[in-house]
Design goal:
Strand order of the largest sheet: 1-2
Largest sheet: 2 strands, antiparallel
Mean pLDDT: 84
Structural class: mainly alpha
Number of strands: 2
Number of helices: 5
Shape: globular
Low-confidence stretches: none
Helix content: 55-70%
Length: 169
């Protein structure tokens, strides 16, 4: 049986969603491990989790994950604007999550700048950036849990009759 373009579109969306969720998990895991939590509470002593106590390893994985997450976010934004905007609208849940993601990315960029040798921030601003980055991540996690419990979706269909988005090219 041959797959229709619309079915292929939804398979692609599920793949992107899986990658997005995996990247958020990796980013959260490596972000918290950079705060020495896993070493302090002996979680890194569990066989196979020793790498969580190695700052430079988790730092590199966190940066690679951030690059991939930015790619997925950019791809999703372009794909929505180019292919799905006429058929689907973003929900309030989507706008809130996008706002949290933008805040996380913004504070993450400031954290990257803070780590450069020629960039100096005041200690209070540095603490503000760090706490904001963690706080926005916690807010995203909490809001996502609430959205999952209430079955909040990113998109709502604008038309009752589905259209073939690949014929619009």
């Amino acid at each position: 049986m041959k797959s229709t373009p619309v079915k292929t579109l939804f398979v692609e969306q599920r793949l992107i969603k899986s990658i997005y969720l995996f990247l958020l998990f990796v980013m959260g895991l490596t972000g918290f491990s950079q705060m020495s939590i896993f070493k302090r509470y002996y979680i890194a002593d569990i066989p196979g989790l020793g790498w969580l106590s190695q700052y430079y390893v988790t730092h590199a994985i966190h940066y690679i994950g951030a690059i991939l997450l930015l790619f997925v976010m950019g791809y999703s934004a372009v794909f929505y604007l180019w292919m799905m905007r006429k058929q689907f609208d973003l929900t309030i849940t989507a706008y809130v999550k996008i706002g949290f993601l933008i805040a996380i990315v913004g504070t993450g960029i400031l954290r990257v700048l803070k780590n450069l040798p020629d960039v100096v921030f005041s200690p209070i601003f540095t603490m503000f950036i760090d706490i904001s980055h963690i706080g926005f991540m916690f807010c995203l996690m909490l809001f996502s849990a609430i959205a999952m419990a209430t079955r909040g979706k990113w998109l709502k269909q604008t038309q009752t009759k589905p259209i073939n988005v690949y014929n619009q090219l």
